[in-house]
Amino acid sequence: MQPETCFAEVAGRRLEYRIHPAHQVERPTLVFLHEGLGSVAMWRDFPARVAQATGCRTLVYSRQGYGLSDPAEGPRRPDYMHREALVFLPGLLDQLGIANPVLVGHSDGASIALIHAGASGRACAGVVVMAPHCFVEDVTLAGIRAAQQVWESTDLPARLAKHHRDAATAADAWRSWQNIWLAAEFRDWNIEDVLPGIRCPILAIQGVDDEYGSLDQIDAIARGAVNSPDVDLLKLADCRHSPHKDQAAAVTEAVLRFVDSLPLRT
User: Fold this and answer.
1) Residue 47 within a domain
2) How does DSSP assign 182-228, residue by residue?
3) Which of 53, 144, 218, 231 reaches 20 to 30 Å from 254, CA-CA?
4) Host domain of residue 59
């Protein structure tokens, strides 16, 4: 059974969120950050299963322009993930009284988690990133161009609309995601400079068959997060861009081990 859908206003935008209650109160809160086309609903039952396995209180929310949240404040700029990491995420955490969380991000959400942990100046108990982007690769751009053909020739628009407010919201999310990633001014986007600022443990997960990124992405985290007490890389065979879907059991087990390794919340 899914928890109640709630809303919080952050930086002038009404954001959809759900909270799975804790089963073990000494655990940190998990905060799920969705992909570039995602939402609360797009995660399906994965957050609930992780919450049950770990005993952690778990927050899942839709960023502006996704799910049932308000439309985005304007066209995306190359710094859009920094704004999400340094303005919207801190604002939401403060409203909900969440301190020292474990951030669990996928794709764009993983990049946002890294930026927040490395550049916000706020404490994090840990960071779990799945298929993160630290820089733009040719394989990423090729994957986005290939996805456009799928969008135009299949029922993908209708399927994506089921996870957002309506078809228009899904289409806007698609266009904004595609347009910024393929923009010339985004080609030099890179967040490796924030990695030394991360001072909590990191679990970085990447599918060997990821159509949107290579293993160089998580190898960069291992090189760059020099002040993290532990960086654990999990490279999964038979896994594409969504490890939590393609290898759900392995990812859930890895997150459980990671949370178990963290100090108890005091």
Assistant:
1) yes
2) HSGGGTT-B-GGGGGG--S-EEEEEETT-TT--THHHHHHHHH-TTS
3) 144
4) 6-135+190-261
